[in-house]
Amino acid sequence: MTRVTIPIGPQHPALKEPASLSVTLEGERIVDFDLRLGYNHRGIEKEAENRTYLQDIYMIERVCGICSHSHATCYIQAVEEVAQLEVPKRALFIRTIVAELERIHSHFLWLGVAGHEIGFDTLFMYSWRDRETVMDLLAAITGNRVNYGINTIGGVRRDIKPEEYPPIIAALNTLEERVRYYITLALEEVTLIKRLSGVGTLTREEVISLGIVGPTARASGVTRDVRHDDPYAAYSEVTFNVISDDHCDVYGRAIVRLKEALESCSIIRQCLDKMPEGPITIKAPRKIPVGEAISRYEAPRGEDVHYVRGNGTEKPERVKVRAPTLANLQGVKTMLRNYNLADVSIVLAAIDPCFSCTDRTVAVLDASGSCREIMDMQALRDWSIAEYQRRGVDFAELNARA
Amino acid sequence: MQKEEQIQQAITTRFPALAATTRVVRIRRISVDTGLADFIAVLDFLCAEQQIVMLCAITGLDEGEMLSAIYHLAREDGIVVNLKLIVPKEQPVIPTITERFSVAALYERELVDLFGFIVEGLPNGNRYPLPDGWPEGVFPLRKDFTAEEAAKLPPAQ
Amino acid sequence: MTLREQIITWARVKSPWILHMNSGACNACDIEILAALAPRFDIERFGIQLKGTPRHADVLICSGAVTRQISDRLRRIYDQMPEPKFVVAVGSCACSGGVFRGCYNTFQGINEIIPVSVYIPGCPARPEALIDGVVKLLTSLLPADETIDSDMIEIIDSAENMVSDVEMAST
Predict the structure, then answer these.
(1) Is B129 within 8 Å of C67 (Cβ atoms)?
(2) How far apart (Å, rounded) are the C-alpha atoms in residues A138 and A147?
(3) ω into B88 cis (within 30 of 0)
(4) CATH code, B139
């Protein structure tokens, strides 16, 4: 059977972000998969060296809008370690509360996007409606629905006063009820189970050898969670379960994310109960001393790693961001092997890709798969124009009509 | 800090030349600096005998005369060993570690594109993260790529 | 305006089909665009529908500071849309480069690549701001003295006149 390579992206209804996938098919089966990234590469790491540490918080937050608090907190933790700052406990608890709220919002977002990818738009509408509860809560606590800006070097910028606890608890009650509804849906709705089961399988051994992180790894039984292994913020003061599942496929990832949303609600309640008194920030120096630190954070998509190096001035020497999706993208090729074209979007969605966290040619195969010519965009365009002219299409007439 | 000190002890016993550059920075963080000669040996030792399970990231650094790459290696219990490989800028040739960690391919491509490392044995693939048409020999994350250099890049069509 | 032009304008204003393009954004504006389609804000009640291909779209809703890699594709997507077409730049990055102004791999806003009709600032632009921007765009398409509802009455009047003319002619 001839092999056909289909380009998907960078603009494509299934991809909310630009990336160029080349899927090689034999009929409906995927035999090869190639990914061209870099559409979201903005040059943040370089620009971070030209701005002060405080200005960098706002730029690093916007590495990704969905996990903005993850990136900001991970970066701040590294800076605070280089500067040897003792962050007040109250600030750590507030950071944890916002972090878990972000996890809930991200998992609801994922649920909706996954539903949309498999054609279940009702699930998209339901879960995004419920997500608005979390957005309202975040807006009440931090002032913005997305890109919260609650971190500063040495603590947080806003306090959560005791008067604000009751609305948070009420919202958590609603959220827990909704998550339980979705878990029931996932366990009982036959079409959903059949559509998601057996798709995008990754065995436990593959997860470990490919270095997969986050819910994608935990759905294959690998209990890798930075909150538990390398605790930061207030995670050593609260108790929570690391959710894992044995399905090893997209269905397992859905279950893991939903149950994690429940755990997040429990963590937030514990944080509100145990909230210590005290200041919310400590004065930080403008010039961060020479030193380096690596900070790890469990973002909703997996392990986020930031490296910061200070050189004694008010601007960093080096900031490095490694987002979770970069670690998981290598696994997509393994996951897609021998599956159908229709599964590409849901398997890609199942790692919950965030190409803007990640980034910073058409290969032409002939029928036998042997001759390979790499064309860049201009060459391909010229080739296709020549091909149509050979078939007798007159471009001058078409252009005159336009 | 017992586990961290044990790891430090094990490394310095096996590689006495690296004793000066192996240190426990804080709980769950160990740093080791090495040159090209010992790099693969140390990496294999850590993977085989010190229970390294994951490569978290590779950070490139421009340190004037030298270019370095820090390999952040993690264990199950959360301890991270930062293995820093230092090579001269005139000859930034490093070996690939994709046989040990397949995820390293993308990280090494980043080093090639942004710093100008030459990674021997890196499998073929699309460049990452710079766009097609990026000028040859221009490495954005090196310190000599300043705003003036950036202004020389082609403008929007 | 002839009746034909009136109907076409009315259809265009009452049911703009949009194409969403992310030109290297952080996703915050994109999720606010999707949130605008979700039940709380629900722009679908204005007849706005999200399409998958530029060939079907009237309005290109674009977010993000344009990265070098995607600038060529953005131009091509814009060229593939049929006339008349409008571009809405959502978010500070799309308007002027936003927080990424000065980065080596981004341009200073999408108006360096394609012409923009409406700028919606914000980081990210709230769904309410998005709705406001789209309504402003649609209102600008109508003749100066009309609002979005008065045009409907005019069209019905014209159509009724036309029908009664035809009836009288046939009797």
Answers:
(1) no
(2) 10
(3) no
(4) 3.30.460.80
pLDDT tens-digit map of A103-149? 999 999 999 988 888 888 899 999 999 999 999 999 999 999 988 98
Range of the domain at B97: 2-145
DSSP characters for C48-109?
A: -EEESSGGG-SEEEEESPPBHHHHHHHHHHHHHSPSS-EEEEESHHHHH-GGGTT-TTB-S-
Distance (Å, whole) CA A160 – CA A96: 12
In a domain, C3, yes or no: no
User: Rounded CA gap, A81 and A161, in Å?
Assistant: 28
Joined tokens for residue A331: 């696994």
CB A288 within 8 A of CB A83: yes
Which residues, including other chains, have CB under 8 Å from residue B6's CB and lie 6 or more apart?
Answer: none
Answer yes or no: are the C-beta atoms of A217 and A303 closer than 8 Å.
no
The verdict on residue C122 lying in a domain is yes
B142: nearest CA partner in chain A: A46
Q: What ipTM score was computed for the predicted complex, to two decimals?
A: 0.93
Q: Give how many domains chain A has, as a whole number.
A: 1
Tell me if chain C has a CB within 8 Å of the CB of A354. Answer: yes
In C131-170, the residues whose Cβ lies within 8 Å of chain A are: none
A164-186: per-residue pLDDT in tens? 999 999 999 999 999 999 999 88
B129: in domain? yes
Phi first, then psi: what are they for A37, rounded to 5°?
-100, -170
Q: How far apart are CA A91 and CA C90, in angstroms?
A: 33
Instruction: Say if CB A295 and CB A209 are below 8 A apart.
Output: no
Domain with C28, as residue range(s), is 15-143
Nearest CB neighbour to C73, from listed A11, A41, A128: A11
Q: Report the C-alpha gap between B21 and B37 in whole angstroms.
A: 15
- Other beta carbons within 10 Å of C56: 13
Number of domains in chain B: 1
